[in-house]
Amino acid sequence: MATTFRALKHPNYRRWATADFVSVSGAWMQNLGLNWLVLTMTGSAGLLGLSLLFQALPRILLGSWAGAVADRWRARRVLVVTQTLHAMLALTLAAVAWTHAPLTLVYGIALLSGTVTVFDGPALGRFASQLVSRDELGNALSLGSVISSGGRILGMSMAGALVGITGEGWLFVINSLSFVGVLVALMRIRSNRMYQLATSPPERAGAMAGLRYVLGHRSMIVVFLLSFMLSSLGRNYQVTMAAMSNGPLGTGAAGYGVLSVVFAVGTILGGFLAASRRELTLRLLLVMALATSVLQLVSGSTSIMLFFAVVVLPIAAGAVVIDTTITTRVQLDSAEDMRGRVLSAKGMVTAASGAAGGPVLGWLSEVFGPGHALQTAGLVTGMATVAVWVYLARMPERRWLPAEQKWVRLSTEQDHTEAPAESAADSPAEEQPHSTCEPRWVLKEGSRWAPAEVTTDEPRDLADEAQQLTQEIPAGTQQSGTGHR
To answer: InterPro entries annotated for this entry (predicted)?
Structure first.
């Protein structure tokens, strides 16, 4: 039990976790209210999907730039701005609902909300990772999954109970007030108990530098591709559960509601399972990906509601373990000054998989039936997992790694150091110099892969020059001077 909740020993994380639960609950209340508002205004499920597209579009188009901002500026300052904007947009949405404004205004707010969210996400990732030590980041992310699942259940339950009584407008007001809790928590976080992260120097700043960095990590690219396959075909259960309920299971809306609850419970169990692990490893990711793929194959072969629900529960738990493990590994196995851009890349993959997977699974369900759609998707994700497993095992830079290291990390370098901040500020000027975790293989000009040179970007001082001079003294002569830290 102590292992499962070890991140909560940090006062800063406890404050943030409490505020996060309140904020997630409010966000899901607004999601349900917005969907219901658009549906009652238009009566069209297609126009409802358009509002979701407007929210997701900025994440795909602006993710790289948002990550660069997170890597360059104080995360706390960015979050104060984004959380304030979220609160203002929620109040504006309430006014739209009360005044029966045109639908175009709702779409405009959805687009603005998506734009704010794309800058909010990487900053949240960097800030949250500064609240716990490096060894406890995976546990903190796992508990965050539990908090998100619990907030989702509470928020949707409250919204479902209130929307018929108060209307959609008050749901947006409640969400606006939830951001006040986040702003209070941001003010109460103690900077001297935060763990510093490096920020990008000018030569490594910008979206293109982040893109080159991600493309230089072949193992990270492969994991992102696997994440895309798993998210698009393996975890779009909102589509397949609805199709199965109206099809082979024959349970209708009531059955779909029950399955949604089962899935939500599974996500909570998955969060606790991930939190109980000492370390979230690459091997765990691959094992869970293969297991959920097999379970998805099995789920498509039944027409019994109880059996389907029993299979969906571990699938939901495995989905959370997979997501948490990927998020943990891409943060711990990348350079600290690139963390915001790496998280943005993951966010872009998630957004793209959601946009592509829903229509594909819907088409498969209509043409071949929901059961065959699940079986096809499970077969594809299983084959993708095996292919990634074999590819990682044969990568030149990983092939000769010791067994105890080979299936733990994405990268092969151990270069991260951290210590609690000693000053009350966490601005870029006062953070540690950026870490030098470079990929062992990088993309050179001419689209060819070649080993990277191991370099350091820290400024050279007089002591460094002295060391360089002493290296020219013939062997056997006493050397002096200090090297790079």
So the answer is: MFS_trans_sf (IPR036259), TM_effector (IPR010290)
Nearest CA-CA partner of 240 in 36, 376, 53, 383: 376
Does residue 175 carry a pLDDT above 50? yes
Residue 55 structure tokens: 């929210």
What is d(CA 176, CA 184) in angstroms, rounded to the nearest whole number?
13
Residue 114 host element (H or E): helix 103-129
* b/e map 18-45, b = 16+ CB within 10 Å: ebbbbbbbbbbbbbbbbbbbbeebeeee
Lowest mean pLDDT among 28-37, 66-75, 303-312, 425-434: 425-434
Domains of the chain (ranges, CATH numbers): 1-197 (1.20.1250.20), 211-414 (1.20.1250.20), 456-485 (no CATH)
Tell me the C-alpha distance between 250 and 247, whole Å: 5
d(CA 369, CA 362): 9
Backbone angles phi, psi at 418, to 5 degrees: -155, 160
Q: What is the pLDDT of residue 475?
A: 41
Distance, in Å, from the CA atom of 19 to the CA atom of 34, rounded to the nearest integer, reads: 22
* Euclidean distance between CA atoms 62 and 207, whole angstroms: 10
Confidence of residue 313 (pLDDT cuts 50, 70, 90): very high
**Cα 130 to Cα 190: distance, rounded to the nearest angstrom:** 11
CA dist., res. 33 & res. 39, Å (int): 10
Asked whether the predicted pLDDT for residue 463 surpasses 50, the reply is: no
**Interatomic CA distance for residues 27 and 42, integer angstroms:** 23
Count CA atoms closer than 13 A to 445's CA, side-chain side: 0
CB atoms within 10 A of CB 98: 14
Please tell me the distance from the alpha carbon of residue 372 to that of residue 300, in angstroms, as a whole number. 6
Beta bridge partners, 373, equal none
DSSP string for residues in 147-206: HHHHHHHHHHHHHHHHHHHH-HHHHHHHHHHHHHHHHHHHHHS-GGGSBP-----GGG-S
Cα-Cα-Cα-Cα dihedral sign, residues 214, 218, 224, 228: positive
B/e letters for 121-134, b = 16+ CB within 10 Å, e = fewer, are bbbbbbbbbbbbbe
Of 357 and 173, the one with more pLDDT: 173
Q: pTM of the predicted model, to two decimals?
A: 0.70
How many angstroms separate the CA atoms of 340 and 128, rounded? 12
